[in-house]
Write a structure and sequence with these properties.
The protein contains 17 helices and 16 strands.
Length: 597
């Protein structure tokens, strides 16, 4: 193969320059243009189809997640009420008169957060019981109010203990009919003889808005059989009867089936108009013009090149001798009879000398700089990966302790705040984040700790607005706030405060974290300040307060050791940590721009 190519090159050297450019035009311009354009068009069309299929699959999964989350919350609440003896006793008790029932009703509802929990999720609950001593109204009614509803009839007809129903009825009004989404569950855990039911009704408009607010260009249909239950398009009017599907509506639509409490639903995601082919049709005149230009213009250029080739080659030879690059590539095929061969020989001699100089002087220096930058980035990533588990484990421990001690449903809210913290952590793309983002993280963390400490923990955060866009290493402020909670507030039995203050000083940025906790002895304060001022990677290997040392090391690295730390306090009174970060000059690298917008 190599010998054949060599012979072909020698054969080409004997052609005139004009013939060489014609051959070059056909072989290297015209044929590759036709082949590559065809391959690109077919490949792009294929990828466009796969992309649209993948997008529709993701949309269906997202819609399924939203439905399952909201309806799953209702199911979890229903299961909780199902096994709750207080609900059973309240609904089954025989009351002597209306006054006794009303007093029991008010006392019962005041002791549960059920209505607030459901209201936050756009749901309304109603309890029904076959107990004629109760008074209809509010959240409790006699079974007569439920017996003639479509959801009750379907549940008993199917002999199920609970179910999800999409109905169009007038159960709440004899005038207005509208669509309803109802979760109905029997409450027969303790007493199967007396009929008792829990009905949770979802706000249909809110469900439609949730789907529409996803802002998908594709039309989404959620169907039961051929009934269109929910849609982000024209089928979402809650005041009209459910429309029916037809084959034309779901032609080429992506289909995804789910089951919620015995109700089989199908999610259809309709494709949008093929934007790729539409763009091709709309731009066809321009595409044809460009194709003609790619064929005619190179041919015309070859003609011009033939007329002035000798002059241009001489100019290129001069340019090659002064070219500025980190590596010059030698050109093969020095043997030949034309002017190009002479230029190649001169160029290759220049390449050999220049590459030798570049290799010994310039490239060695570049390698050293790359090694230093890589080492610094590796250290930052190592520190970053070390602090995350340390911090998140403390948060999870707070949630665990609260769940054990309180036994309340507030755990769901705590997990929600933890999800906010984790989402912010994942979405931050590098080690530097704005103070605004960091403070949002601090607020979520303190809100979680508030569940743990209750009235023992109070906090106040003050941030100058002009400081919100300044960049600092992520998890810096929250590390010191966490230390104030764990070592300050936790060991103090009386209520305490945590203050976070951030302001712009004349020479930089000042961050102050103060707690009114148990404080520290003067010797420990001195030791902590020395550790912070002298923080290094070697100190992290020795254990101790890893989070504080880690944060200090990263601040020192990004500020070139110009950050200042001060620790003040008194045993039994509290501790204050002050961090002063200097304003660096413009023109620093991204890692060094610690106080720059």
């Amino acid at each position: 193969m190599g010998k054949a190519l060599h012979k072909l090159g020698l054969w080409m050297d004997d052609f005139t320059i004009k013939k060489k450019f014609y051959i070059f035009y056909v072989v290297c311009v015209l044929i590759p243009l036709i082949v590559t354009d065809s391959v690109v068009f077919l490949t792009t069309a294929k990828f466009d189809r796969e992309r649209r299929e993948h997008e529709m699959s993701n949309i269906a999964s997202a819609v399924e997640y939203s439905l399952s989350s909201m309806i799953g919350n209702a199911g979890e609440i229903g299961n909780s009420i199902y096994t709750n003896r207080d609900f059973e006793e309240f609904l089954s008790k025989r009351y002597t008169n209306s006054a006794e029932y009303v007093a029991a009703y008010q006392n019962f509802l005041s002791g549960t957060l059920l209505e607030n929990a459901l209201g936050m999720n756009s749901m309304i609950f109603t309890l029904y019981t076959d107990n004629d001593t109760i008074v209809n109204g509010g959240r409790v009614n006699t079974l007569d109010k439920l017996r003639n509803t479509e959801s009750y009839l379907q549940l008993n007809e199917e002999a199920k203990s609970k179910g999800l129903f999409f109905v169009y009825d007038d159960s709440s009004s004899r005038i207005t009919r509208e669509r309803r989404i109802i979760y109905l569950q029997r409450l027969d855990f303790y007493d199967a003889e007396t009929e008792k039911y829990l009905k949770i009704e979802f706000d249909y408009g809110s469900m439609v808005r949730i789907i529409k607010n996803m802002n998908y260009d594709n039309e989404v249909l959620i169907c039961e059989g051929d009934r269109i239950l929910l849609s982000n398009g024209q089928y979402g009017s809650y005041g009209s009867e459910f429309q029916r599907l037809d084959n034309a509506t779901i032609r080429e639509a992506y289909e995804h089936t789910i089951s919620l409490y015995g109700t089989d639903l199908t999610i259809y995601v309709k494709p949008v108009e093929n934007s790729f082919l539409t763009s091709i049709r709309n731009e066809l005149p321009i595409i044809l013009l460009l194709l003609a230009a790619n064929v005619i213009f190179p041919f015309w250029f070859v003609q011009i090149f033939n007329r002035s080739f000798t002059k241009r080659i001489t100019e290129l030879s001069r340019v090659f001798k002064s070219v500025d690059s980190d590596h010059l590539i030698p050109m093969p095929c020095e043997d030949g009879k034309d002017e190009i061969s002479s230029m190649i020989r001169n160029y290759n001699r220049m390449v050999e000398r220049t590459n030798g100089l570049i290799e010994t002087v310039y490239k060695n220096k570049i390698r050293e700089q790359e090694i230093l930058v890589g080492r610094k980035n590796a250290e930052l990533l190592a520190l970053h990966s070390q602090i995350n588990p340390h911090f998140l484990f403390n948060v999870l421990e707070s949630i665990r302790m609260h769940s054990i001690l309180k036994k309340e449903n507030e755990t769901a809210d705590m997990v929600s705040k933890l999800a906010v913290m984790q989402r912010q952590y994942v979405e931050w793309g590098n080690d530097s984040v704005s103070i605004f983002q960091e403070i949002e993280f601090v607020k979520a963390y303190l809100a979680l700790q508030k569940y743990r400490f209750g009235e023992r923990l109070n906090y106040d955060i003050e941030v100058d607005r002009e400081c919100e866009n300044f960049k600092i290493p992520k998890l810096t402020i929250v590390t010191f706030v966490e230390n104030a909670c764990v070592h300050g507030i936790e060991s103090k039995s009386s209520p305490g405060w945590i203050f976070v203050r951030i302001g712009r000083q004349e020479e930089g940025l000042e961050i102050e974290i103060e707690d009114t906790g148990s404080g520290m002895a003067e010797a420990k304060l001195t030791e902590l300040q020395n550790n912070m001022c002298n923080a290094s990677i070697e100190m992290l290997k020795g254990g101790g307060r890893v989070g504080i040392i880690n944060a200090c090391v990263r601040l020192k690295m990004v500020t070139e050791n110009r950050v200042e730390f001060r620790v003040e306090g008194e045993e039994g009174v509290g501790t204050t940590v002050t961090i002063r970060i200097p304003c660096l000059q413009e023109g620093k690298t991204d890692a060094e721009s610690i106080v720059s917008r």
